[in-house]
Design goal:
Elements (H helix, E strand, L loop, with lengths): L1 H20 L4 H10 L29 H13 L3 H27 L1 H5 L2 H6 L1
Length: 122
């Protein structure tokens, strides 16, 4: 269920965001939001490339505190509709990945203790 939820949020829920954001241009907006998935390119710098027990929040460069703050501020303060939508997509991506991390942490305390998120709060 965790994997389904993760990919549902990444691919389907953004369609709802695109529709809510601008009903007339929702297909274009959905493509823009899909394009924000490119933020995951920072995963290629990780060793190993994929670790199912690793929380990407705080670990990958574009999934860390400063970029997440920038995504939030851009979502709130940027006036240009397309650029704001990109920031919204990036922020929603981080929210989705955070939900995935919380789900993983609920099953694996060691995963939490070894995560970058743990260091943020301790």
């Amino acid at each position: 269920m965790q994997t389904f939820t993760h990919y549902f949020l990444h691919f389907i829920a953004i369609g709802a965001i695109a529709y809510w954001y601008d009903k007339k241009n929702w297909k274009r907006n959905w493509l823009i939001l899909l394009a924000t998935m490119a933020v995951d390119l920072d995963h290629v710098f990780a060793t190993p490339l994929f670790d199912p027990m690793r929380c990407g929040i705080g670990y990958h460069p574009l999934h860390s505190e400063i970029p997440i703050l920038v995504y939030f501020l851009g979502s709130v303060f940027v006036k240009h509709k397309t650029i704001r939508l990109i920031f919204i997509g990036l922020l929603f991506h981080m929210i989705t990945d955070s939900i995935d991390c919380l789900w993983m942490f609920s099953k694996c305390e060691e995963c939490y203790v070894n995560s970058e998120v743990y260091k943020w709060f301790n």
